Amino acid sequence: MRAVGVIFRRELAAYLRSPIGYIVAAVVLLLGGLLFYAQALGPAAGERLSGDVLARFIYNASGLTAIAACALTIRLIAEERQQGTQVLLNTSPIRDWEIVLGKFLSALVFLTGITVITLYMPALIFVNGKVSIGHILVGYLGLTLMGSAVLAIGLFATALTRHQLVAAAVAAVVTGTMFLFWPLAQIVDPPLSRVFAGLALHGRHFRGFQGGLLHLRDVIYYLAVTYFFLLAAVKVMEAKRWE
Amino acid sequence: MVQLTEVAKYFGEKRALGPVSFEIPRGETVGILGLNGVGKTTLLRILACDLRASAGRVVIDGVDALADPHEVRKRVGFLPERPPVYGEMTVGDYLEFAGRIRGLDRATVAERKAVVEDVAQLTEVDGELVRNLSQGFRQRVGVAQAIIHDPELLILDEPTHDLDPVQIREMREMIRGLKRSHTILVSSHILSEISQTCDRVLILNRGEVIASGTEGELFGRLLHATSFIVAVSIDEPQVENGDSGAVQPGGDDSIGALIRSVPDVDRVQRVEAAPGSAAYEVEAAKDRRAAVCRALVQNGHDVVRLERTQRELESVFVELVGQRAH
């Protein structure tokens, strides 16, 4: 596990030293702020219940979190391959799962950091309206869990290729498809609709978090997606050695 | 130290290496010589446990690389052709990172970092960002990361790649220094590089080892004639027209005639030489360097230079590669 910590610290420092981390954070905070202003504070916002405003904010934040997660992960392994630094990791006495886990945790901490900065918006609702801290906390737990699932998808994508653009495309397609499962579930008949709803990254599994309701099945779903794609990333890295 | 038995590597249907078999005893410095694309890097990556062999057995320091690659990686330091450095890190931070992922604790890393920075002459750039360093310094950082955990086996893939002549010389000196404490494998397609730093040469062609031995053994086995350059000091007046006082090539003279009188010497030709000396390229049916030097010294000449010609090294290589090509 020590290797996980060493890789985690290097990757986190890389986010803080390179422009990509700051660009992603700036875009997320800017768009999040604009959306919040338009839907809660601006002239077109209208009168809404505080709980609705918070739910809407969490809904918007989930989309931004997914985009940020994709953007943060695409460099993680593809860039190492592109720049030839993957050799250092591959020839060190560390295991592929330690590399993947260290990188994943660094991205998760950085993404969570960005998400935490957005807390001033729910805080405004809390001060000026009537929402519970529980609702805010559950909403942020949902954002973190969904973010971790998308990060795992991104890591899987970046493990597949040395080209960051290809990694970004794969991550976007897989994440987009899993988001689309929910609208698809609304238009197809059972039992397919149940399968799509069960697999959807958004919709059924995120609605609870949006409304401040914590369901164990939703937590397990996001953890399972995270685990599945991290495992897939490890297997891809192992397979690359046999190429 | 290193034992390879029938090792092969395939990328899909394409055979990139092997089957190759060889052994390297502890403490030896071995050069892997071959043209570009013959499988040198594949071989070194397998030895460094970056790639797994498709077939065969690799044993390093008694540990099977296929069964326990993790343990092998602890004993191997690897410098790929392109040093695996992170541009956004400082040299010091990078070496600490390299040491930590090799399993060293903080105290040992600090101790080793000081040692490898000294060996690679990096102490003065410890706080510099790697991306701001010249290619030569980056290559040194690459060597430093490869030895930070004091490995038994050091693998250097084209260590002089992209370096200027001064940096090549410094790298050569560094490798010579490392020979004292490591078993080293160096790959190159530059013949003179290998001959100047290695105890033994393995020549690779089309994924197979086609010859191995010391430089002398290869010369003896493969050259039908040897050629070398011998230079002696001469008293010659400086030329006023600015052409320096160097002896001009071509023509005949007494020294050339003396060399030609040595048994088995087939051809003597005067070549360009530094001012105050006369140089001759000598071709003989067998190695006559000692006899030629003896004849020159006994006749009162001071020998100031004696070396095998680059053409001779190339002859060995071309002979081998050419044999296989037909």
Count structural domains of chain B.
2
How far do the termini of chain B sit from each other? 35 Å
Rg of chain A, alpha carbons:
19 Å
CATH topology of the largest domain in chain B: Rossmann fold
CATH superfamily of the largest domain in chain B: P-loop containing nucleotide triphosphate hydrolases
Work out the number of β strands of chain B.
14
Q: Can you tell me the CATH architecture of the largest domain in chain B?
A: 3-Layer(aba) Sandwich
List the secondary-structure elements of chain B in sequence, H or E.
EEEHEEHEHHHEHEHEEHEHEEHEH
The structure class of chain A reads mainly alpha
What Rg of chain B do the Cα atoms give? Answer: 23 Å
User: Using DSSP, what is the number of strands of chain A?
Assistant: 0
Describe the oligomeric state of these chains in a short phrase: heterodimer
Structural class category of chain B: alpha/beta
What does this entry look like structurally?
- The complex is a heterodimer of chains A (243) and B (326).
- Chain A is mainly alpha-helical and 243 residues long.
- Chain A has one domain.
- Chain A is built from twelve helices and no strands.
- In chain A, helix 1 crosses helix 2 and helix 8 packs antiparallel against helix 11.
- The longest helix of chain A has 28 residues.
- The radius of gyration of chain A is 19 Å and the shape is globular.
- By secondary structure, chain B is of the alpha/beta class.
- Chain B has two domains: 212 residues, P-loop containing nucleotide triphosphate hydrolases (Rossmann fold, 3-Layer(aba) Sandwich), CATH 3.40.50.300; 90 residues, Alpha-Beta Plaits (2-Layer Sandwich).
- Helices cover 35% and strands 28% of the residues of chain B.
- In chain B, a hairpin with a 5-residue loop joins strand 12 and strand 13.
- At the A-B interface, helix 1 and helix 5 of A face helix 2 and helix 3 of B.
